[in-house]
Amino acid sequence: MEYGVKLTAVGLAKIAAAVANKGIVKLTHMAVGDGNGNPTLPDPAQTALVREVYRGMINSLLVDANDPAVMHAELLIPSNSGDFAIHEVGVYDQDGQLFAVGNFPATWKPLAAHGSTRDMIVDLAIKVSNTANVQLVVDTQFVGATRSWVISTITRAYIIPGGTTNQLLAKVDNLDGNTKWVDPTDANVLVDVIKERQLAAAGQDTFTLSVCTTDGVAVYVEGSRQHEFQVLTGVSLKLALPLPAGTEVLFVQNEPNEPLKIPQRIKFIGYYIGQI
């Protein structure tokens, strides 16, 4: 194989010790080098790159989906770093020791001053006896999210974990993000009834609403439900007949299943019958 990665003697010793003592090797940084202008071959005896040109914190360390013995260490080289060739790459542990080293296809990392620039991802596949013995120590201030990581990680399950079939997500309080999964029988939704009263002018049949809208509105004239009216706009409607002056018209939105009990206005005319 023309290109590859090898654990260094230090890396092999640390993995063996971690397996024997049920410990963990903590990786922190990756570096790239230009090989002093020449292609390189990874050597387990190496303790450093031939000539390092850039070092940064490991952006991610993930187990290969197809091989549980392989870990992918990812280095993000930002667009404002560059003007160097890459021939070699290394992974360092928290003690600053070279854990693994590999050679790299000759690649130039440009800067904008030369007419081209880009963020660059270097992905190094490291094979160890047990990936459970290797851990990434990361400073979140220096970690960048790559497009592939976002696509594979930021899923519905990642954003809203938990819950069981047919449960609903309910607010715990009024603070943002405070939610919990509840059974539908435990979820109570209260909807306010919105009411607006107006008194008709003489011959008035068209009304403009200021509190309600015409979306699903119910209309009562002197307490009697009106089923024939024309919606003109989102806030205006026309009744089937003009009304006498002073007629009370009630507009109701979010009316419950049971019709509202609206007191009817009763006009009473009394007569006195008797001797004068």
UniProtKB/TrEMBL annotation:
It comes from the Bacteria. Residues 3-147 form the Phage tail fibre protein N-terminal domain. InterPro entries: Phage_Tail_Fiber_Structural (IPR051934), Phage_tail_fibre_N (IPR022225). This is Phage tail fibre protein N-terminal domain-containing protein. It comes from Massilia atriviolacea.
